[in-house]
Write a structure and sequence with these properties.
Number of strands: 0
Helix content: over 70%
Radius of gyration: 31 Å
Distance between the termini: 37 Å
Structural class: mainly alpha
Largest sheet: none
Strand content: under 5%
Order of helices and strands: HHHHHHHHHHHHHHHH
Oligomer: single chain
């Protein structure tokens, strides 16, 4: 088994210097303030009179923000110069790179609407600097499978009750139950219990048994299903907190993927390559230390070898 080709010393020095800059607290604070300032600029541009009067100033401020974000991405890329794959293993790095680099794409720059949407996406980058917001976004992502199941069950309940409502109230209340589509829309609006009182009163004028229909729907849709959705989100939030706590307990080394994670999780090829690279780096460091140790006559070993190999 051969070790992977080690990174050159120039790349290692570049990565070390960029890493010092990106890990400084002031760096994160400056980028965070720039993101908020960019969001404020977008809000100012919504006022047509103010935007027309200060168009050049706003454009210059936007260019400054874009330049700052570009420098940030270059520094983050430079911090992984000795380990390029580590940069692309971080989803936040990929998201930041796409959002920032898209501003330089000609077709995107010419499309004002798309460019503004991408500028709006920069606001989401604040999650990198706000742990609690990052936990919420992770929780939302992990709750998607459970939410999909909830939506399927909710749509099924809504359809069944809409068909029953169409059968019972189509002739008396065609405005709300004239078709299954109108019935589903009516019941969907009643899920929040807004207007339920008026609907029950109108139903009682048609039949006394309508109270059973509305009461059972309110109990099932507004209480049971909504509480199930809340439970799914809270469970995902607990999982997200555990993931964040685990990441804090096992912080990733500079330029390296998270411990036990990355693209090679589970003992795949990525993990083996990472281990080999770490071993190669450790070997080079040990060789340099061993070469600098003094020998019996007080000279460093590298000088002794040079004198032996001399004429």
């Amino acid at each position: 088994m051969t070790d992977p080709k080690p990174a050159g010393r120039g790349r290692m020095k570049l990565a070390a210097r960029c890493r010092v800059a990106t890990e400084a607290p002031a760096f994160g604070l400056v980028v965070f303030c720039a993101i908020l300032f960019n969001a404020a600029l977008m809000g100012v541009e919504t006022y047509s009179g103010l935007a027309a009067e200060h168009r050049q100033v706003l454009q210059a401020a936007e260019n400054c923000c874009l330049a700052l974000f570009s420098v940030e991405m270059l520094l983050r890329l430079g911090a992984c110069a000795d380990r390029p794959k580590a940069f692309f293993r971080d989803p936040w790095n990929l998201f930041d790179l796409v959002v920032v680099a898209s501003a330089f794409v000609p077709l995107v720059r010419e499309n004002t609407t798309l460019l503004r949407l991408l500028r709006l996406a920069r606001v989401l980058r604040t999650a990198r600097f706000l742990p609690h917001l990052r936990i919420l976004l992770i929780a939302v992502g992990r709750s998607l499978p459970g939410t999909a199941s909830f939506l399927f069950v909710g749509a099924l309940v809504l359809y069944v009750y809409a068909m029953v409502g169409w059968l019972c109230f189509a002739d008396s209340d065609p405005q709300h139950y004239g078709s299954v589509g109108r019935a589903m829309l009516t019941l969907f609006l009643l899920t929040t219990l807004d207007g339920l009182t008026d609907a029950v009163r109108a139903g009682l004028q048609i039949s006394r048994f309508s109270i059973i229909y509305y009461a059972s729907y309110a109990l099932l849709a507004s209480f049971v299903l909504v509480n199930v959705l809340i439970g799914v989100v809270l469970n995902s939030l607990d999982e997200a907190r555990e993931i964040e706590d685990e990441a804090n307990r096992n912080p990733k080394q500079p330029g390296l993927p998270p411990a036990g994670g990355g693209a090679g999780t589970g003992g795949g090829p990525g993990t083996g390559s990472d281990v080999r690279e770490r071993i190669a780096t450790a070997r080079r460091a040990l060789d340099e230390i061993e070469a600098s140790l003094p020998t019996a006559d007080g000279r460093p070993e590298r000088q002794l070898e040079a004198s032996r190999s001399g004429p």
